[in-house]
Structures are given as C-alpha cells and as structure tokens.
Batch of 4 targets.
Target 1
Amino acid sequence: MNRLQEVLSHNEQFVNNKEYEQFKTTKYPDKNMVILTCMDTRLTDLLPKAMNVGHGDAKIIKNAGALVSHPFGSIMRSILVAVYSLNAKEVFVVAHHDCGMTGLSANQILDKSILSGISREKIDILRHAGIDIDNWLKGFTNGAESVEESVYSIRNHPLFPKDVPVHGLIIDPETGKLDVIVDGNEHIEKSNKDDLRHSI
C-alpha cells in the first residue's frame, strides 16, 4: 500500500466512525489569534501545547522559517484575511531554535534541484526573467533577527491595522520554552505615547 492509499484507507474509517465530531468548531478563532510559525515537524503538536492553543483557538499559518518573505505574498495575505475577515486580534510570529532555514543558501537547493533533473537552463531563465531566485531561496543567519524582520514586515504593511499587536517569539523545539523577541503590546503603547506627544 502506498502512502496515498494508506491516507485514504484511514480517512474512510475516520469518516465512517464519525471521529470528525470531536473537531467541530467555527472558522473564527476562539482566542482571536493568528500564528505564523515554521513547518518543522517537531512543532506540530508541541507548539499548540506550549502556547495553550487548543482546537479552534487560532489560525495557524506555516511555512519554512516562519518568514514573511514578500509583502504581497500568500503569507501576508493570509494574515490580513485572518485579521479582517476572521476576527483575529493579535498576531504571533513564532520561529524556533535549530531551524532548517538557518544558514541555508540558494545554492544548496538549486544544486539538489539539478540533481533531481531540473536543468540549469530553467534556473538561468528564471534569473534572466528578473526573478531574484538566490534571495528567494536563502535562509537566515540569526533566528531572533529573522523574527524581528517578519514582525516589522507585518506591522508596517500598508494594509495592516496599527492597533493589532504583532508579537515575535522563539520556541525551543525540544522543551517548548518560549522566549519573547518582540512584545507587540509594548510597541503599540510606545506608538500611542509618541502620537500623543506629537499632537500636543
């Protein structure tokens, strides 16, 4: 039995046994949270437990490195939809230690793509078309700085509301310990004080 057949066989039993009933909820997050985190397998169950997030509590967006790599990409669009359409009132960017994106270079991915049968010509076509493939595929050198950059990108997006806090954290994938890199509430308080000072 291949993996697809295994999944479908399980799914048939899951539906027939009505196991889905325990997961019924609405499309709105009960804790009004949207979480951007990494796709790392160690975080699948650990992160929600470490953050006290249960089924239906939060919108969870995953990608490699918990990165907002483009201001008008699908990650930022998902965050905006969560805030404006699905009642999310806070954003949490949660990266983790020992991330596979740390130190990753585009060449590592491109070399493996060539070994899998992608031609150098296709890669060259992308570069000649103006696609910055090297920057698009690169990782980061420091997880905390990466979190700060993603928080900055979200907070300063022209369509993002200024009264929604954007927090940045790093989780230990072994213990679940969370360290705060950016407290979004403190930023909003400081911005409000600055606005008040300038209005006087």
Target 2
Amino acid sequence: MIGRRRGPGYWLLAGFFGLFVLFLYGPTLTILVLSFQGPSGGLTFPMNGVSVHWFKNLFEKQMVGDFAGSLQRSMILGVAVMLVTVAASFSAGLAFRSRFKGSAFIFYLAIASLIVPSILISLGIGLLYRVLGWDAAWYSSAFGAHLTWTLPFGLLIMFAVFNRFDRRYEEAARDLGATSWQTIRFVVIPILLPSLIGVGLFGFTLSYDEFARSLYTSGTFNTLPLEIYGMTTNVTTPVLYALGTVTTGVSFLVIALALVSFTWVRRRRQRHGSDAGKAA
C-alpha cells in the first residue's frame, strides 16, 4: 500500500501543534523539575541538588501562607459544588424535557452568568453580603459564586444528553410496573451515569481552580488559587514550585478518576449485557 505524500500544509500544522504542546506543558515540566531542588536550591536553573525537601516544607507551618488549610478548603468546596451541580443539572434536565410556561426565560436566566465577567459576579456577591451585614466566607458566599460558574455548564451538558436520550426505555419500564422513582433510579440514572460522572468532575475542576469568583467572596480564609496568588508575591523559595506540582498532580488525579469511572461503567454494562444474553 502506497502512503499518501504529505504536503507542506501537513508539516505546518504538525509544527504548530508541537509548539502548542510545548507552550502548554513546558512550564509545567519546568516547575516539576525545579520543585525537586535541594535545600539550598533557588528559583532558577541550574539545580542545586535533588531532594523532596520543599514538599516536606510545604506541609509544615510557614511564616507566609497556609497551603494545607487552603487545599482542604478548596477540596471541600469543590466536592460540595460538584454534588449540587450534578443534582441540580440532572433535575433540570428532567424538568426541561417538557415545555412549561417560562421555561425559556428560566433557561436564559440560568446561563446568563456565563456572559457576565467573573470578577463582577464576585464583586457583586461580596457587596451584597456586606449590605446585608453578613460575613463572606468560602463555605457560603464563595460556594454560591462557584455555582454561578459550574451550574450553567452542567445544565448545558445535561440538556444535550437528554436531547439524545431515548424515552422508550422509560416507557418500557413503566409498562413492566415500575414507578416514576424506580424508572429514574434503575433506568435513567444507570444509562446517564457516564454523563453524570463527567458533569461532576467538570464541576469539581471548575470550582477547584476558580480564582476570580473567589476573590471577593472567600472571606478571611483563602482558597487554594488565592493562596497560590498570594505566595507568588511573598515566597522566594522552590516551595512555590512544590505547590504547583502538588496541585497539578491533583488535576491529573481527577482525570485518572474520570477514566477509571468510565472504564468501570463500560465493563459493568458489558458484563450485564452478557449475563442477560446467557439468560435469554
């Protein structure tokens, strides 16, 4: 078989993609390497020894910054936002399958926060809490601010998923005597489980690294993005690179969990399908 001759356009696009990958992952790799400097290492090359000293220092009490506390707050906030985003998006997807009065207005109102700049939403929520005499905090005002970012994406994804969903599965379940709740629990949710996992992980990552909507809503305790920003102006040791390596590792862990979840769901379906075939 004679291969097609690749023209200059192919190599131009390949070179552009290579530069894009280098630009995207080059700084991350640099931070990863520099985070393993020795105790007397600096912020630039050449490296002065190799150790995990700065990772240990990261979890110790420091004069500037609270990495452990900010990481814990961001993780808790991200999980809470993820759960609410999945539940609200799934419920809205079920509700919007049938047209009702005011549905178009509610839909555009729900996704309007994607158009408004994030910093203005954060400022507005912070001012509202101040006018009401409430204290802004990462578990209240920041939680609401993050939902204005994650919920519209969750809604759009679930609307697209339900648009392709075959409702004959539900009709078959009802014909067999299933109640509405049993139909949702044993038919709809298992079929849409990969999409629900995707919405959940997407919501978590959006909340986990959100900076602008946390700026005026997190109160006196920083979330991780705010802590990283503060450390860039105060910390002059490779502990900052260790922090970047750890946060990048968490992001890749989320991706790995998504892949494992999708694989588990696919194999579970295949196993159930083969069991059903044998029973027939």
Target 3
Amino acid sequence: MILPIVGYGDPVLRKMCEEITAEYTDLKALIANMYETMYNAYGVGLAAPQVGLPIRLFMIDTEPFSDSDDLSPEEQEQLKSFRQTFINAKMLKEEGEEWGFNEGCLSIPEVREDVFRNEKITIEFYDEDFNKRTEVYDGLIARVIQHEYDHIEGILFTDKISSLKKRLIQKKLQNIMEGRTRPDYKMKFIAKKGR
C-alpha cells in the first residue's frame, strides 16, 4: 500500500524518533508499504517520520544510482545490489573527508542542494528480521544512510546548507508547507492556515 509522504513543515519530521521492538504492530507490512511508497516516488531512501511515524526505521535501495557513468564498474555493481532496512540504527562513527553531493528529499520536493558529508560510516542496526548488525559503508551508500539517519534524529538536509542558500529556497519551502507543490507522488502537507 502506498502511503502519503509527509511534507516539509510537519512536526513529525523534527522529532527524535523512538526505538521499536520486534513486536511492533504490523512491522513487516509497514516495511513492505514503505518500500512500495519509496519506489512509487522514485526515491533511494525513506524514513518512518516521512510517512508520519516517529520511530527509528528507514530503508535504502541505491539501485537508481548504479547507472552513473562517473562510477567504476565495481561501484555500479555495489549500488545496484544494495537494499537494506535499518531498525533502531545508531551511528557509531563518521570519518574520512567530507565531500559534496547534490541531495534532494521526498518530503522536500523540487528542492536540491549540495550537502557535505563524511565519506565513511560505521553503523549499528537491526535488519528487518531483527538480527543485530554492525557495518561499515562508504561512498554513495554511506551518504544515503547518513541522509536517512538524519531523519530519525529530526534533522533535514536543508539544516546542513548555508544561511544564504536557506534564504534562497525559503519561498519553495513555504510553498511545500502551504500545499502548493505538486510532486507526482502522494503527499500530505501541513497546509498552514492564515498569513
């Protein structure tokens, strides 16, 4: 089932999310619905707050990045086959040089900005079968994980850009809050009343 994606301005996107247990109600169905929602919106990652749930759950599928000509065949293959669910994730380490990449977000349609993130991470999480794992990732996979991890910490990619760039996108953010943006996927807007 495709879920509506919560738009910029909704308070759920600013919440520090709660951990869940393996007994979380309909967890398997929620995970399946979130993947379906992400694919329907042509996303590479989706976090639970983006579908209105303040819980520590996100998923990633980097396959859409795999056809970039800028990548080596090994990197393309790695991105093509990377699909992972992260439950109760905890970032243990972010290291290496910061590098810029033009990011977007399904909750902030029509806004893209260069964001600088560390090239390598170590993260602890439970997979969808509730097996505990600690993994090291780098490159684009690490970047997508950092973006989605920020969501469960109540952080948006727009928090990581300069104040000048924030001022330049203010009108677009206002349009999202007021429901004036029309992406080609199902969204739920805060629709601010009064001005």
Target 4
Amino acid sequence: MRKLKITELNRISAEEFKETEKIPLVVVLDNIRSLNNVGSVFRTSDAFLVEAIYLCGITATPPNPEIHKTALGAEHSVTWQYFEDTVKAVEKLQENNYTVFAIEQVENSVMLDDLQLDSDKKYAIVMGNEVKGVQQAVVDACNGCIEIPQYGTKHSLNVAVTTGIVIWDFFKQLHP
C-alpha cells in the first residue's frame, strides 16, 4: 500500500464546501473552554458536511490562532454563529423545526447505538463543557438526550472525541 499524496485526495475548496449539500445537523457547543476542542469540532464538522456550529457562552470564536491550530482552516469553511446563551440557541433551533438532543448522561437517555434518525428531519446536538457537561437548563430545553455507551472504568470522553463519534453516527444515518 502506498500513502496518497495530498494532491491525490481531491479536496474541495472552502467556497465549494459552502455550496455542497450538508447533512441536516447543527452542532451546539455549550461553554467549551478548550480552543483545541473547538478547532477539532470545526475540522470534524467539515469532514462530515455538518450544516453549522453554534458557539455558546464562553466558547471562543474564530478568528483565533489556537482554534486554527486544530481546525486547520475548517473555521473558514463551516458556517458558525455565536450565542451568549445556549438555551436561546436551542430555542432558535426548535423554532426552525430542529429536534435538539443534548449529548449527556441523564435519566431516560437514548443510547447512541439505539438511535434511529428520520432523514426528513433536521437535528442539532448540544455538546457540554469539559468539566460540567451540558448545563441542566439546556438539558431541560432539549427534546431529548443521547448517551454514548461506555464499558470501561471511565464514564466520560473528551468533548471533541464525543462530538466526532456522534457526528459520524448522524452522518451514516442522514447522508444520502
């Protein structure tokens, strides 16, 4: 096997990305403190054609050299918006007919491997702070919660890793 050269990857430009059909998914970052995590979410969102990212509360916004370090330019291709209040971001999404899920360990959460999406609907996922998770007021505002099953001694994952896992699952179900 031979590794492919960057010129063989057929990458599209940021302008072409903006014109490409996206999966009906918005990622909401609720008070994410690590700029590396924010950048990583941009990069994963670019890779899997996420519609937009909502940056909320203390979550940093582009342009920012620390975000760029991990986003590698995806902050220029993926549409994003800033909201001071995450609950208001959730409410705006719901007003626009999005089903909003917090990714959080809660009573009656749906396990990600049991989740069945409807390709005719629009979705948003709320990712929580690295220490405190998704705020309870935000959980209360969501339509439901999704949990990633975990089987080891730890019961939490890095927010960028979690976002990647969930985006991939949504992509597999929603991409035509």
